[in-house]
C-alpha cells in the first residue's frame, strides 16, 4: 500500500471543505476582519477570500450574531445580462441602477431575517418590518437574485416603457432613493442594535497576499490533518516527509511548486493534490521527486491556462488564443523579441480568436505587453540592489511594479509545460 493513501489535502474550494477550521491559517487580515477593522477584501480567484468569509461567518455566529452570506450564484452577472434588456435599448443599466437594486436586495434580506427572528415581538418597528415582508415578499422560495432582478426590471420598465416624461422622472427618483422602504430603515437599525446582522458578500471581485511561509504552513496543516502523528514537526519537516526536500538542480521542491502558481492557496492545493494522486496510483513508497511532479505538470499547466483565460473572459475574451501565439518558443524573451511578437499580434499577422481580435486591435505592442503582465502570463526581470542574479517577478506578488523599464521577460512557469516552451535557464524563480 502506498504511503500516500491516507494523505488528503482536501478540496481546493473552501466552500466544499468540511474540515476548514482544522487547517485554517489565521492572518492579520483575518483578525482585522473579526475585529471590524477591515470590511472589504479584494483578491483574485483562489486567493482565499471564500475561506476567510466562511471562517468569519462561523466566528460571528459563535458570538450569537446573525449572518447573511451572499455567494456568486446569488448575483450571477451572466444571469443579469441574460435577464435584462441590453443597454442599447435606452441605456438604462448604469451604475446607479445596480447600486439601488443592490441596496434594496440587502435591506430585504435583512428584513426577512428580522421578520423570522422577531416573529413574536410586540415592538412596533418589528411589526412594520413583518408586514412589509408579508405583503411584498410573501413567496419564500424566491432567492436573492430574484429580488435583485425584479428591482432592476422595475427600473428597466420605467426607462424603456411607455411612460410620460414627468411621471417617469418621479417614479425613477422614487426607486433610486428607495422611498418604498425608507421609512423602515430606522426600524431595521433599531432591530440590529441588540443583535447585529453581518452581511458577507463573496466574490465581488484589503488585497490578500500570501507569502512562501504562509503557503507552506497552509499545506503543512492539511498534511497534519491526514497524518496527526506529524503535528509536532515543523512545516518544512512535514513537507519533507512526502516530497524530496531539494531537487537535483538544488531547487527546493516547494519553491518549484510555488513558482508554478500565482501564490494562491487553491493553486498550491490543486498542484500538490494532483502530484499525490499520481504517487498513489504508482504505489511508490519513496518521497516525491521531480519526475513524479513533472508527470502531472502538463495537465496542471493546461488547467491553469484555461482558468486564467476564464478569469479574464470579460476583460479580455479569447485571451487563451493570444497565449497560444507563444507555443513552442523560448520561455525567456528580450524586450525586443517580446514587442516584435506583440506587434505581429496587434497587426493581425498571427491569428487569434475572433473574440480576442475585438480588443487586441485597440492596443499597440506595448499595450499588449501590459495586458499579458496584468493577467499574469508574463513575468518581468529585475535586479535587486546587491543581488548578483536577475529575478523574475509577477504582478500577483508585486502588484505595484511596472514593466516599462524591464528589458527581459519570462513566460510564467505555470504555463510553460502546456505551451511546450524551451527550458528556462537556472535563475532565481521569483514569484
Poorly predicted runs are 85-93, 425-431
Mean pLDDT: 81
Strand order of the largest sheet: 3-6-4-5
DSSP helix count? 20
Topology:
Layout lengths: L19 H4 L4 H7 L14 H14 L3 E5 L6 H7 L11 H23 L6 H13 L7 H17 L4 H12 L2 H4 L2 H10 L2 E5 L10 H15 L8 H6 L12 H6 L6 H18 L7 H22 L7 H6 L7 E3 H13 L6 H7 L4 H10 L3 E5 L8 E3 L14 E4 L1 H7 L12
Helix pairs in contact: 5-6, 5-7, 5-10, 6-10, 7-8, 14-15, 15-20, 17-19
Q: Can you tell me about this structure?
A:
The chain is mainly alpha-helical and about 425 residues long. About 50% of the residues lie in helices and about 5% in strands. The chain is built from 20 helices and 6 strands. The protein has helices spanning about 20-25, 30-35, 50-60, 75-85, 95-115, 125-135, 145-160, 165-175, 180, 185-195, 210-225, 235-240, 255-260, 265-280, 290-310, 320-325, 335-345, 355-360, 365-375, 415-420; strands spanning about 65-70, 195-200, 330-335, 380, 390-395, 410. It has a 4-stranded antiparallel sheet with strand order 3-6-4-5. A hairpin with an 8-residue loop joins strand 4 (about 380) and strand 5. Helix 5 packs across helix 10. The radius of gyration is 26 Å and the shape is globular.
Question: Which features does this protein show?
Answer:
single chain, 431 residues, mainly alpha, four-stranded antiparallel beta sheet, two-stranded parallel ribbon, 20 helices, 6 strands, 51% helix, disordered C terminus
Brief sketch in words of this structure:
The chain is mainly alpha-helical and 431 residues long. Helix content is 51%, strand content 6%.
Amino acid at each position: 500500500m502506498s504511503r500516500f493513501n491516507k494523505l488528503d489535502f482536501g478540496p481546493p474550494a473552501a466552500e466544499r471543505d468540511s474540515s476548514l477550521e482544522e487547517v485554517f491559517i489565521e492572518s492579520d487580515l483575518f483578525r482585522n476582519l473579526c475585529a471590524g477593522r477591515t470590511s472589504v477584501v479584494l483578491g483574485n480567484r483562489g486567493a482565499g477570500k471564500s475561506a476567510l468569509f466562511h471562517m468569519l461567518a462561523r466566528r460571528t455566529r459563535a458570538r450569537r450574531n446573525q449572518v447573511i452570506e451572499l455567494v456568486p450564484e446569488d448575483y450571477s452577472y451572466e444571469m443579469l445580462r441574460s435577464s435584462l434588456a441590453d443597454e442599447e435599448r435606452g441605456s438604462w443599466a448604469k451604475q446607479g441602477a445596480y447600486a439601488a437594486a443592490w441596496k434594496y436586495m440587502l435591506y430585504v434580506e435583512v428584513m426577512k431575517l428580522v421578520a423570522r427572528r422577531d416573529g413574536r415581538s410586540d415592538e412596533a418597528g418589528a411589526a412594520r418590518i413583518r408586514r412589509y415582508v408579508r405583503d411584498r415578499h410573501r413567496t419564500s422560495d424566491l432567492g436573492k437574485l430574484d429580488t435583485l432582478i425584479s428591482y432592476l426590471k422595475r427600473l428597466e420598465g420605467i426607462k424603456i416603457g411607455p411612460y410620460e416624461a414627468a411621471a417617469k422622472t418621479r417614479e425613477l427618483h422614487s426607486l433610486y432613493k428607495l422611498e418604498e422602504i425608507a421609512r423602515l430603515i430606522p426600524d431595521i437599525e433599531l432591530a440590529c442594535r441588540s443583535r447585529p446582522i453581518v452581511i458577507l458578500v463573496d466574490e465581488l471581485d484589503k488585497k490578500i497576499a500570501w507569502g512562501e511561509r504562509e503557503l507552506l504552513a497552509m499545506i503543512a496543516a492539511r498534511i497534519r490533518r491526514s497524518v496527526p502523528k506529524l503535528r509536532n514537526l515543523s512545516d518544512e519537516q512535514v513537507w519533507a516527509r512526502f516530497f524530496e526536500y531539494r531537487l537535483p538542480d538544488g531547487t527546493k521542491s516547494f519553491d518549484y511548486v510555488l513558482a508554478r502558481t500565482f501564490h494562491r492557496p487553491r493553486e498550491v492545493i490543486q498542484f500538490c493534490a494532483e502530484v499525490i494522486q499520481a504517487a498513489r496510483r504508482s504505489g511508490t513508497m519513496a518521497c516525491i521527486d521531480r519526475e513524479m511532479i513533472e508527470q502531472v505538470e502538463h495537465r496542471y499547466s493546461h488547467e491553469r491556462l484555461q482558468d486564467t483565460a476564464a478569469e479574464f473572459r470579460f476583460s479580455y475574451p479569447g485571451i487563451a488564443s493570444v497565449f497560444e501565439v507563444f507555443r513552442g518558443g523560448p520561455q525567456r524573451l528580450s524586450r525586443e523579441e517580446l514587442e516584435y511578437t506583440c506587434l505581429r499580434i496587434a497587426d493581425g499577422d498571427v491569428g487569434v480568436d475572433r473574440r480576442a481580435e475585438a480588443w487586441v486591435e485597440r492596443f499597440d505592442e506595448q499595450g499588449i505587453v501590459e495586458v499579458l503582465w496584468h493577467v499574469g502570463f508574463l513575468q518581468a526581470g529585475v535586479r535587486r540592489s546587491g543581488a548578483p542574479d536577475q529575478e523574475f517577478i509577477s504582478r500577483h506578488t508585486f502588484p505595484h511594479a511596472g514593466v516599462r523599464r524591464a528589458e527581459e521577460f519570462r513566460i510564467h512557469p505555470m504555463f510553460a509545460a502546456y505551451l511546450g516552451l524551451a527550458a528556462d535557464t537556472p535563475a532565481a524563480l521569483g514569484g
